[in-house]
Amino acid sequence: MKISQKGLYALQAVMALGRNYGTGTVKIHEIAIENDLPEKFLELILLELKNARIVESVRGAKGGYQLRRAPSEVRLSEIIRLIDGPLAPFGDADQLRSLIALNDDHRALYEVFLTVRDSAAKILESTTIGDLIGKAGAGKRSKRKNHQRDGANLSGAEKGTRK
User: d(Cα 127, Cα 132) in Å, to the nearest integer?
Assistant: First the structure.
């Protein structure tokens, strides 16, 4: 299993939406800035997540994106499978089982790959976005909230240099 850069960006975007769950929508630009993600690429990722009904978009001046479900209900496995496909190093679990059954010479090797796939799948299926947000620290706010709060206290020069 290899998680692509697109998969990592998708996970980061969903985590950003998870940190803001219940507070309204978040604009693509804010997600991109907060997570240092390319905005145009993020648009495509969020559209894919929207089509899979993981996120939803709201139009208008106060529009943006938000999770359709609570962060505790969004599993890492569903995001990774959506963006990067099967969790196995060689196709999906059924394909590995078929190789085990048909290839006596390499059965032991394919059994190891299946065990790796099953272990990774178990972890990814039992870990939610809510778990990751909780591990980041319950007392931490998103950069978006910190920036909004602290922005009023900065001079114009400081605002221009702050990342």
Answer: 8
